[in-house]
Amino acid sequence: MLQVSTRQALREALQAARAAGKRIGFVPTMGNLHGGHISLVTAAQQSCDFVVCSIFVNPTQFGLNEDIDNYPRTLDADKSLLDEAGVDLLFTPSVHDMYSDLELTWVEVKGITERHCGASRPNHFRGVATVVCKFLNMVQPDQAFFGRKDFQQLAVIQRMVEDLFIPCDIVGVPTARAPDGLALSSRNGYLTPEERVQAPQLHACILEAKARIDAGEMDYAAITAWAKAELEAGPWKLDYFSVCRQADLAPAEPDDRELVILAAAWLGRARLIDNLILSR
Ligand code: AMP
C-alpha cells in the first residue's frame, strides 16, 4: 500500500490509476480503524479497481467543548489493517494541507442538519460537509463509501453531492456490529468494561421500538418517552431518540411509510449513536 501525505503526491499517485482506466473508490475516515471501516473498504473493492482511504482527524467538525486532542490516533495499527485489507493508496494529509490559516469557504447543508446530532453539535455538519467536499475534489473518485451508522451524516453528504453537482456516486454501507449488537465505533474505546456490557442496550431499545411500530404503534412521541425512561433508568443520558421520515429526517407523521429510528446517548465518557431503517 502506498501512503502519501500531500495533495501533489496524491495527484501523482492517482494519475497512473486513472490513466489505466481504473474505477476509483474512496473511503474517508478519521482513523482508529475497526471492522466498520474495513466493511467500507470491502464494499469499495466490490465495485472499484483502485481503493483510496484517507485518515484525517478533521478539526472543523469538533465543537469547542469536544476534546479533539484526545481523539484516538493509532496510525501504525491503522496502516497494518488497511494494508491487510488490500487498500491501494492511503492519504494522510496534515491540517495545514487541508485548511488555510484563514478559511473563508464553508459548505453548509441546511434543514437536515438542524435536528438530532446537529442540535447538540453546532457546526459539526458544516465541518463534515466542508472536509468531504475538499476530499471529493482532491480524489475525484467514481464512488465514495460512507457508513449508514452515521445516518444523518450520510444524508448530509448525499444532499451536498446532489446540490453541488459533484460527479461522485455516494454509497451507504450497512452498520457493522459486535455479536451483541453494539455498532462498532471508535468511541467504544472510551467505555469501561462495565459500560461495554451495558452498551448494547441502545441497539436493543431501537429494536424494541421497531417491534412496537411493526405491531401498529403510531404514537411516536410515546415511543421516544418510553425509550428515554428505559435508558435513563440505567446509566444512560439520552441526547435524542426519534422516529423520523427517511426523506428529510423530520419527526414522522402517522402517514409516513419510510422511517428511520435515530438515537444518540451518553454512556460515561462515550456518546454513542445508532439507527435502524424500517418501512410501515
Ligand atoms: P469515522 O472514522 O468515525 O469518521 O468513520 C469513517 C466512516 O466509517 C464513516 O463513513 C462512518 O459512517 C463509517 N463507520 C463507522 N462505524 C461504522 C460501522 N460500525 N459500520 C459501518 N460503517 C461505519
Automatic annotation (TrEMBL):
User: Subunit notes for this chain?
Assistant: Homodimer.
Active site feature: H37
Major enzyme class: ligase
Superkingdom to which the source organism belongs? Bacteria
Name the family the entry cites: Belongs to the pantothenate synthetase family.
Q: Please give the catalytic activity noted in the UniProt record.
A: (R)-pantoate + beta-alanine + ATP = (R)-pantothenate + AMP + diphosphate + H(+)
Report further notes.
Answer: The reaction proceeds by a bi uni uni bi ping pong mechanism.
Residues at which beta-alanine binds:
Q61
Q: Where is this protein found?
A: Cytoplasm
User: Which HAMAP family does this entry report, sorted A to Z?
Assistant: PanC (MF_00158)
Protein keywords: ATP-binding, Cytoplasm, Ligase, Nucleotide-binding, Pantothenate biosynthesis
Protein name per Swiss-Prot or TrEMBL: Pantothenate synthetase
Task: Identify the residues that bind (R)-pantoate.
Answer: Q61, Q153
What are the boundaries of the signal sequence? none
